[in-house]
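Justification of computing resources. Each target in the renewal requires a structure prediction run like the one illustrated here; the chain below, 198 residues long, is used simply to show the kind of job we budget for.
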Amino acid sequence: MKKLRQGMFVGLAALSLLVCLAAMVLSVRSFWAADRIGWTGGTGSSSGATPVYRQRYWVVSDCGGLCIQSEYAEWYVRGGQVLLISPLVQWGSSPKGYPYGESYLFNWSELRHVRLLGFELAHSLPNHDGDNLNITRSVTFPLPFLALVTSVLPACVLRAWLRRRKYAAGLCAKCGYDLRATPDRCPECGCVPEKAGG
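Resulting structure tokens:
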């Protein structure tokens, strides 16, 4: 069971490291090109009698920030076809910059937001355009912050691996003192090795 937990922990650390590296690369790229990935889903008919509901999600990288946006729309369609589910991808458009809510929310004239140190919470007031309704929300945080947070777990795994390596070489796990002459206790820091102490 311990091996399984260690394996899962190392796997999670590897995934965290991949996210950290992707955040660093995306952070640098986002100053030259803004990327948007989205998904649209909804229900309804195109008869005009019942409203069409659409929920759209965007993830946008722009000028060192990552913006996660949700848009709810309700509108009446007077005939024609409605495409309700589709992936949306836009690569390499020009960056618009901070504040992201004003750049990417559609009705930003009625935007309510809180901004602090590159973080941003934003939402638009319900925008009624005839029969249509549109409400948008977004959360933005700096990509270097994501890289920093996701680097903690790989750093812990690396530290544990280095300590095990030290201990296997006959060194004190705490201070690195050579324990070949005194294997029961470190004369430098007083630490008792696990095998001698347990």
